[in-house]
Amino acid sequence: MAEMIAIDGLTKRFGAHTAVDDISFSVNRGEVLGFLGPNGAGKSTTMKMITGFLAPTAGTAKVCGFDIQDSPIEAKKKIGYLPEGAPAYPDMTPAAFLDFIARVRNVDGALRKRRIADAVEKTQLGEVLYQSIDTLSKGFKRRVGLAQALLHDPEVLVLDEPTDGLDPNQKHEVRGLIKAMSYDKAIVISTHILEEVDAICTRAMVIAGGRIVADGTPVELEQLSRHYNAVAVRLEDEADTDAVKAALERVDGALSVEANKYAGVLTVYPKDARSLIAEVGQVMRHGRWKVAEIRVERGHLDEVFRRITQA
Amino acid sequence: MGIYTIFRRELTSYFLTPLAYIFIVIFLAMAGTFTFFVGNFFGRGQADLQPFFQFHPWLYLFLIPAITMRLWAEERKTGSIELLLTLPISMTDAVLGKFLAAWCFTGIALALTFPMWITVNILGYPDNGAIVAGYAGSFLMAGSFLAVGAAISPLTKNQVIAFVVTSVVCFVFTVGGTGVVLNFFTGWAPTLVVDTVAQMSFMTHFNAISRGVIDARDMVYFASVIGFFLFANVIFVDLKKAG
């Protein structure tokens, strides 16, 4: 079965407030779906409904074919879930905590030992295994939560801000871990960090006000940015700035040319995200202006994010 | 088995913090104090544990809420409730597992009062059947206090509130059979009402059992109280888990 998560018309209302408003999507095996959105957009609420913590007001969520409301136990067996804030039992040690999770998930005998050792190795918990969770740093607590979610090698992983509180090295490790697991699982992560979407997600979904406002590959989202395929030129001689600007404005397909705040840097914005690098190169050669640097910009995800979530 | 795994984790967790040890020590010390100083164990000159058992409702009144206040309030506060309820177990498993662990823990504390039993057997020839009944009654009553507290715990994230409310509710259930409440009704209310109120009291049923009379009605009463509050517990957890 390719379609591991199937969400249809999912809605959650808290009193008069609609937290999630008629969301439908599906996630296939091998996909890493990144949930983006401002705080309070409904990311966590959606995850809580997929994992069976909250009952939806309307709509259905199916995990590996099991409806989370009709057959919660079967569906929950398929899911590894890292809730928001990575909660655990503070009095326990990671070793005891992981043992408890393995028992609840019916991972028995020799397999239990192996799975726990495996999860501990993947999340690098070895050195704190026998310290109470209470005393661990934020990064370790997060990794205990991750280890708990991976323990039973689930087909579906739902991770609410998996890299929050980690330092850059740990972030890198966790992203590598998620990427390595992604080929045979369906993974949903939520994040505030836009570079993370670029780094690990095969698909990005932006949620605002409880609705999906954008859904596509990270590159497709970047294309919505006005910076996508813009060409930045840095001139050796600042005195050329005005002349070059005038010449670049005549390029076919250029929407506008802006002089940057740094002297001698010009950015050509294209119409319809088309590539202009060849034309710009030609103009520069033709005018015999000395170029120190020329580069094609990628889209700025944060700009896209701001535009579509504030619209 | 979901229930057993939850039960096992909960029971172990009592002993991970000083809570278990403090509880047991205080329970034993208080039980002894009441029996010998307030209950006049020696002065009565009778070989029984009546002075020991008669104070159990009052001990439970403030010790049991200390156990139950954290059961769900803490899970809600730390957010671990989200983890617990997304594991492949039913809500009933979680509620029963927690309750049984708390009950078993109280049972351990109660069992540790065995020197009292030995003492009374050394000093005289007590009716050991009545003592067994007393322990059974005390254990059942502890279960009822625990069920009340477990049901109240998910209603708040604040353990102090859970403690105080549980104490008050348990107090009403306890004194229901004493003059405090009954005098309020006698004189104007029909006998039926007075009897019903008296029948709703933990004390009435506990006293009946601890005198050595094991009546099915008293058993059914405690079982119903436990069943009713555990059912309420499931509903309250479901209602309040999201907040």
The total number of structural domains of chain A is: 2
How would you sum up the global shape of chain B?
A: globular
The fraction of residues assigned to DSSP E strands of chain A is 25-35%
Question: Poorly predicted ranges of chain A (pLDDT <50, ≥5 residues)?
Answer: none
Strand content of chain B: under 5%
Uncertain runs of chain B with pLDDT below 50, 5 residues or more?
none
Fold blueprint:
The complex is a heterodimer of chains A (311) and B (243).
Chain A: E1 3-14, E2 17-28, E3 32-36, H1 43-50, E4 58-63, E5 66-67, H2 72-77, E6 79-82, H3 94-104, H4 109-123, H5 138-150, E7 156-160, H6 168-181, E8 186-190, H7 194-200, E9 203-208, E10 211-216, H8 218-222, E11 231-235, H9 241-249, E12 254-259, E13 265-270, H10 277-287, E14 291-296, H11 301-310
Parallel strand pairs in A: 3-8, 3-9, 6-7, 7-8
Antiparallel strand pairs in A: 1-2, 1-4, 4-5, 9-10, 11-13, 11-14, 12-13
Helix pairs in contact in A: 3-4, 4-5
Chain B: H1 2-14, H2 19-38, H3 50-53, H4 56-78, H5 80-84, H6 91-111, H7 114-123, H8 128-152, H9 159-175, H10 179-185, H11 191-199, H12 202-210, H13 216-240
Helix pairs in contact in B: 1-6, 2-6, 4-6, 4-8, 4-9, 6-8, 6-13, 8-9, 8-12, 8-13, 12-13
